[in-house]
Amino acid sequence: MAAAYWVIVRLALLLLLWLPALAPGAVVPARFAPGDALLIVAPHPDDEALCCAGAIQRARAAGARVAIVWLTSGDAFELDAMVVGRTPHPGKRGLERLAIRRMAEAKVAAGRLGVQKEDVFFLGYPDRGLSRLLTDYYHRSYRSRYTGADSVPYGDALAPGAAYQGQNLERDLLAVIGAVQPTLVLAPTPLDAHPDHRAAGELASRVLSARGEPDRAAWWIVHVSHHEPFRHRWPTPRGLHPELPLDPPPRAALAWQVWPMDAAEERGKEQAIRAHHTQMEVMAPFLLAFVRRNELYAREPLPEEPELPAP
Description:
The chain has 311 residues and is of the alpha/beta class. It has one domain (2-298): LmbE-like (Rossmann fold). The protein has helices spanning 2-18, 47-61, 78-85, 91-112, 130-134, 166-180, 195-210, 263-274, 277-288; strands spanning 37-42, 65-72, 120-125, 184-188, 217-220, 256-260, 294-298. Helix 7 links the parallel strand 4 (184-188) and strand 5 (217-220). The chain starts with a helix and ends in a 13-residue tail after the last strand.
């Protein structure tokens, strides 16, 4: 009986992850006031522009403060390091050099969106390692298999030299939240297919709940599936199509809200994305596909859990 119950539980969770997307909800224009503070939690440099450039511009136009915190600096993207470095073997130092370039590009992108220099925060934790930090390496040090680092190697980070441990990542994110005091946090849903995005969403949800502020967040998605050919992954069609809406992804059954953008905000979003030159070299059609008439956010990080039979 107990075994059958857990089979049902696992099937229900799988169903939760693969349910078709819900139809978009009401159009909800983003509204900000001068006293507001918006915080973007981005796993990697470029995510802030893909998910949230419209909201950032709307907030800045209203006089609100906008801050961005990048949990990693994107130092595990080996293909990108090969292309940018013009070498088939970028090595550990090549990946760190890529990360330094990506941080510089992120600063330019943020500036194009009107974000002040003092409101950008780099934490510098390991790309493709966030999930491990929150599970097996919360209290002990993790070593990146890409860079070989076991502590934050970047001088521009919030806490250079901090050991790659989940408790330090959580501490640094809490420090940023404490400094910014956001009235709204935009973070990736834990349903995102990228493990760093899932971990970032789980951490943001946990930290906000611990602060008694779980309702101060909205949730976005970038990666819907890694099982389909890259050219068929959401959003489609690929490339620059600012005349089209950003429709809900085919999976992740969240109650999506449509946050519209005007033409000027679309142009601003495109310019912010193009500031990420290293990423544009290898995945421009994917990045530019997020320049649409709207952005999508959900007010809950996960769908409602299905009812399960009593064991």
